Amino acid sequence: MKFNPTGTLNVAIDASDIRDGDLVRCKNMRIDQQGQAKTRDGSAKLNSSAINTAMWWLEEMAGSRYAFSGTDIYEDESSIDAAVTSAQWAAMQYNAFNDTTKTIFALNGTDRKRITSGAVNEWGLAAPGTAPTLTAGGGTGLTGQYNAKYTYVRKVSSSIVAESNPSDAADNAAVLDNQSLAVAVTQPTDTQVTHIRVYRTLAGGSLYYLDSEVAASTTITYGYSESFESDDAYIAGTGFKFTIEDTTNGTENTYTWEELFADRDDEDTSGSGSGGGSGSLIDPDNLGDGDELP
Length: 294
Hints:
Elements: E1 29-33, E2 36-39, E3 55-61, E4 64-69, E5 72-75, E6 78-81, E7 90-94, E8 103-107, E9 112-116, E10 119-122, E11 133-136, E12 142-146, E13 148-156, E14 159-163, E15 174-179, E16 181-184, E17 195-200, E18 208-215, E19 222-224, H1 227-230, E20 241-243, E21 292-293
Antiparallel strand pairs: 1-2, 3-4, 4-5, 5-6, 7-8, 8-9, 9-10, 11-16, 12-15, 13-14, 13-17, 17-18, 18-21, 19-20
């Protein structure tokens, strides 16, 4: 039987009766239904303009398609980062520790990106580039020489997912005489940072203990309003903090509650800063209340 594309095709015919050239015109046919041959559905544009550079990698997550092409990363054909290196990418989907959201982790030998819906971030957090500034606060309770460092933190709900290395210590330690310690920090430019953690020494000490945690959007210098909150016996927690004079918040108008806990048995609060006993230095990625930094 000679197949005429304007007619019908008898799919039950003996294959030996089909001659060369009978099915030449069938390259645009869809034959995925039993007993039927139909013209293919054709194609349609997903976007008004196609990606016109070489595509290194495609990854699909949660119904969206992520393309790594040239110097761009695209989400459903819309660029969400236009400043990456044009190189061969590799990617995988993964839930980071303490994170309940699946994320694309991608790298190309130069760039390392963590990608969620509509956002491209670095894998980790860069340490603060500016040391804190220390002054005497408006409270009482601390006597001696103190220094401080701070870190940037990313939290998911109440869980810490990432914490940066600490900043440098303040250039000038604060010498206090029955005063509180006010710590001014630099706000992060990385939008994935949610909190800032402040670490300070004991009087005359050289180890840095977790003192408090504040939301990254809090642009204030703060001290303690009660002497017992600033005492070395209550080195950790979020204290009754009040603002020192600043253009954003005015004066003494921001308070939060503190969870108090006494010094651990392995801490030295004598003022020597030797950190006697079995205390040890702790990786900043695994810090908790009362943990220490070198």
